DNA sequence: AACGCCATCAACCGCCTACCA
DNA sequence: GTGGTAGGCGGTTGATGGCGT
């Protein structure tokens, strides 16, 4: 048994809206609103359109005060920061940008912002990898611990401080994704990053310092390193996919590990452990308790970020948050 | 001029959730 | 508590136009 269609697919018009259709819908909406029923609306006004299509047309195009195109630098910053923090929750991101629709932002991200963010990154990779290798060699020659940067790590550019590796294996195992390198790297970066999750409602976008304050002593059985400064986390009873945010991180951080020390800027929440204290991953989550978002993400150390040579795009994109 | 490729964006599709009877 | 329905959302598709060859 398939799902019951929301309208008679045979008798509805598809494709671009004509000015006449727009006029009809706009006129009716301005006078009556939806009347609480989008499905019935097209019949009322004599449109051969699916109710969902009417809703979409109204929300994305006809609604008053809708802005199209011409995204400002500030809007870019907000979108990037929120995307890095919460992933492709376009409706939530759109809620932070008056006059923008989720569809618009989604398209803008997919066609422009993502490339803007990632484009130059690839050019930087080779150079960054060289720097990383050099640093790694220096470190290895210092402590004589060449093993820490090799076996058991997906990415040889990302050294694994041995002390912390064991502590977080449990957490990593719960996340059924293939971003072990990114998480391990962030987790273990001088002990300053920490992924963890709990079976609690909501997701937090608190700043790193707030996260630190809130969570330092409350992560259940997971032992936290005293020096942990950044908590990349989220709480979801039903789970939340983490792959997207970490995909981006994988992309952006690949070969740039030496530049991460200043990343106070976009944390941010990833829900990385699913329900039952992180025993499975699910694509859906309950956002009832998400709002209001704490926004913008606090930048606690912009000077530090600049001094530590973040990728230019990130400095540029995130700097205006201050 | 014709063609192919690519970027853009409006619109659609299908899944999930909230709500109501 | 359960099932049906509408609304909301994110991913994807397809039409269109611009550009290079």
Automatic annotation (TrEMBL):
<keyword id="KW-0539">Nucleus</keyword>
<feature type="region of interest" description="Disordered">
    <location>
        <begin position="119"/>
        <end position="156"/>
    </location>
</feature>
<feature type="domain" description="HTH myb-type">
    <location>
        <begin position="63"/>
        <end position="117"/>
    </location>
</feature>
<protein>
    <submittedName>
        <fullName>Transcription factor MYB1-like</fullName>
    </submittedName>
</protein>
<feature type="domain" description="Myb-like">
    <location>
        <begin position="9"/>
        <end position="62"/>
    </location>
</feature>
<dbReference type="InterPro" id="IPR017930">
    <property type="entry name" value="Myb_dom"/>
</dbReference>
<dbReference type="GO" id="GO:0003677">
    <property type="term" value="F:DNA binding"/>
</dbReference>
<dbReference type="InterPro" id="IPR001005">
    <property type="entry name" value="SANT/Myb"/>
</dbReference>
<keyword id="KW-0677">Repeat</keyword>
<feature type="domain" description="HTH myb-type">
    <location>
        <begin position="9"/>
        <end position="62"/>
    </location>
</feature>
<feature type="domain" description="Myb-like">
    <location>
        <begin position="63"/>
        <end position="113"/>
    </location>
</feature>
<keyword id="KW-0238">DNA-binding</keyword>
<dbReference type="InterPro" id="IPR009057">
    <property type="entry name" value="Homeodomain-like_sf"/>
</dbReference>
<dbReference type="GO" id="GO:0005634">
    <property type="term" value="C:nucleus"/>
</dbReference>
<dbReference type="Pfam" id="PF00249">
    <property type="entry name" value="Myb_DNA-binding"/>
</dbReference>
<keyword id="KW-0804">Transcription</keyword>
<keyword id="KW-0805">Transcription regulation</keyword>
